[in-house]
Amino acid sequence: MRSRRFERESEGFALTITVVAYAELKEYLGRSGTTSLEITGGTTLGEVIQKLGLPKERIMSIVCEQKLEGLDSTVKDGCVYQILPLIGSG
After folding, report:
1. Cβ–Cβ < 8 Å for 83, 54
2. Radius of gyration over alpha carbons of the chain, in Å?
3. Which residues pair with 39 in a beta bridge?
4. 8 A C-beta contact, residue 11 and residue 26
């Protein structure tokens, strides 16, 4: 038997997620670097990143619930996604 959460995520129901960006990526989300979004189940993180206007080439990793996520991962309802930028050295 499937959980209700799984059904919402896979059948196109509205989901709410939070995105937190760090360092120079914060400017894309406003002063706080945090935003909440209502999106459709089945949406990928790549689509969320594009919608927010975050530059994919500046993202080192995306973390949710202490797990690394890829741009092709589908979003999970209620999850807080932490977007970590590339760190340059010189």
Report:
1. yes
2. 13
3. 15
4. no
Plot region of 51 (φ>0 → left; ψ -120 to 50 → alpha; else → beta): alpha
Inform me whether the pLDDT recorded for 10 exceeds 60: no
Q: What is the pLDDT, as a whole number, of residue 13?
A: 83
64: left (phi over 0), alpha (psi -120 to 50) or beta: beta
Domains of the chain in sequence order = 4-85 (3.10.20.30)
Is the model's pTM score more than 0.90?
A: no
pLDDT of 12 above 50: yes
d(CA 44, CA 19) in angstroms, rounded, equals: 13
The neighbouring-strand residues paired with 51 are: none
pLDDT in tens, 21-59: 999 999 999 889 999 999 999 999 999 999 999 999 999
